[in-house]
Amino acid sequence: MALSKLDNLYRQVILDHSAHPHHHGHLAQATSEIELRNPTCGDVLQLEVALTDGKISDIAFSGDGCTISQASASMMTDAVMGKTPAEAEQMVQVFSEMIIGDKPNVDLDVLGDASILKGVAQFPARIKCATLAWKALNNALTGEDGKGMAQLLSQHED
Prior knowledge:
InterPro entries: NIF_FeS_clus_asmbl_NifU_N (IPR002871). The protein has 5 helices and 3 strands, in the order αβββαααα. It is α+β, with helices and mostly antiparallel strands. A 3-stranded antiparallel β-sheet has the order 1-2-3, with helices on one face. It starts with a helix and ends with a helix.
C-alpha cells in the first residue's frame, strides 16, 4: 500500500474514533475517577475505571477536546479493557515511549489502534493531546502514595 494511502487510512481511523468514540460516557460504579486538563489547548478529560477480579472490567471517558485527544482516549479504552492494572500501566509506558520517540523498537501491537498515533511524535504541540487519556489512566491506577494499583491489589489477594 502506498504511503499516502496508509496515511489516509490512519487519518480515517483517528477521525472515526473521534467522531464515534468507544466507551464514551459515565459508569454506574467506578473504582477510580479522575479529571485531567491540558492547559495548552483546553482539552478536559474525565476518566472512570471499574476493576473486578483484578482486571479492568469497565472504563469510560467524557469531556471535551481536540480530535487527537478524543481519538486517543477512545483507542486507549479499547486497548485496556480486560487488562490487569499492571498490564495497563505497562501499556501506558509503551505509549509514552512511542509518542515521545524514546524507544522506537518497543512492541506497539499491545496498543491496538492506538499504535497509529505514533505519527503524533512529529508534532510536539499535539503530544500532550495524545497522552492526556493515558496519563489519566496511569493516575487512576496509581494510589496517592505512588504505588501502582496492581501492587495494592496483589497485597489484598494474598
